[in-house]
Amino acid sequence: MKIRDSKNPSSTSGKRKEKESKTDKALKGIENFIRLLPTGTIFFFRSQNPLFTHNGDCHTVNKVFTGILIVVCSFSCFFSAFIDSFVGSDGLVHYGIATIDGFWPSPASDWSVDLKKYKIILGDFVVALCTLIMFAVVSLLDPNTLQCYYPSFESTQHLWVMLLPPVVAFLVTAVFIYFGTKRHGFGYPSSPTTTQDSC
Known about the structure:
Blueprint: H1 9-36, H2 39-53, H3 60-79, E1 83-87, E2 93-98, E3 103-105, H4 122-140, H5 143-149, H6 151-156, H7 158-179, H8 192-196
Antiparallel strand pairs: 1-2, 2-3
Helix pairs in contact: 1-7, 2-3, 3-4, 4-7
Region (Disordered): 1-24
GO biological process, one term: endomembrane system organization
Membrane topology: Multi-pass membrane protein
């Protein structure tokens, strides 16, 4: 038979709330990390890279086109940090680009929404930089890219190839948990409830 502490019932509820807030923060960090790399861009890169690199057996033309692929995908990753959305009064999700002044909406946007609260903040640039770093690690340490640009690196620096991705992922995740993102870009649209606390 357990006896409850009738003197201090709020102590257990306070500890529970503190534990829940830490759990919520950890789960929010994981959610932010999942959103860090745009899924479509990664899928496109992973599917096209073997074709562009000729499965790692590169010639000069392959190197040029693979470089273009990496640059285009890198730009897509960086740019995606500034995409946001809101739910208009028509109930539809409207996408646009965060700007210094506010929001550059899609043509059918609802102007009754206060677009100033969607303007670019410092955290957007941190998220964009983290996204770019993560994509650089994913793309430059891809086996086909390694074989194409620096074939001897994988055999001589095998430890770096194995350790660099998880170390960079850990550091970027730590930064990303701190800054986070409240943007709702492609694949993560706003809902009527999240639009209110988007910024």
